[in-house]
Amino acid sequence: MKAFKYIIQFWFSFLMIIVVVPAFSLIYTGRITFPGVLLDMLKGFIAGNIIVYVIGLLLPVQKLAEKFAGLFNAKIGTFAYNLLTTFIYVSIYVVVFGFLYTALAIGFPPYYFMVVLKGMPLSFVVCYIIGVAINPIALKLSFWICSKSTEKDTDFTGSRGKV
């Protein structure tokens, strides 16, 4: 199904936002404030999906991740495959989001690059751990949605194969 890459991007982004926003709030401020964290999740989800979609149009992230895993002969569905593909996803997204969100937060002062680079190692570690944990969930949800869509597409009579 051609839409699979968009469905997996949606679920990965959605699940990442649900976990990453409270995690970073706790790491950087020492607390999670409600309802502020919910608003941050909504903003992150909207902006994140738009940015991930644009990145996906400009850069074949999924193919890069699959080729990277292929370099190590990792088979689809294995933990090694999950580790390697998530490494590529998180590497690209942490860099892009790091630059964008830092610009939104502080603008472009002379120390802009120092602020971006200072936060990237921690952001990468947190996002990589969370990404490895949620990637299998995003895959299962995506396969489930695509299989339901395929069932509906092939069954025009509503009879589910009964004659």
Question: Gist?
Answer:
It is built from five helices and no strands. It has 163 residues and is an all-alpha fold.
How would you describe the overall organization of this protein?
By secondary structure, the protein is mostly helical. The chain has one domain. Helices cover 80% and strands 0% of the residues. It is built from five helices and no strands. The longest helix has 43 residues, at 112-154. The two termini are 27 Å apart. Residues 155-163 have low confidence and may be disordered.
Output the keywords.
163 residues, 5 helices, 80% helix, disordered C terminus
Number of strands: 0
Oligomeric status: single chain
Helix content: over 70%
Strand content: under 5%
What is the distance, rounded to the nearest whole angstrom, between the alpha carbons of the first and last residues?
27 Å
Largest sheet: none
Work out the count of structural domains. 1
- Element pattern in H and E: HHHHH
Q: Low-confidence spans: pLDDT under 50, at least 5 residues?
A: 155-163
Residue-averaged pLDDT:
85
Q: What would you call the structural class?
A: mainly alpha
The general outline is: globular
Total number of helices: 5
Compute the CA-based radius of gyration: 18 Å
Task: Describe the SSE topology.
Layout: H1 4-29, H2 36-58, H3 61-71, H4 79-106, H5 112-154
Helix pairs in contact: 1-2, 1-5, 3-4, 4-5
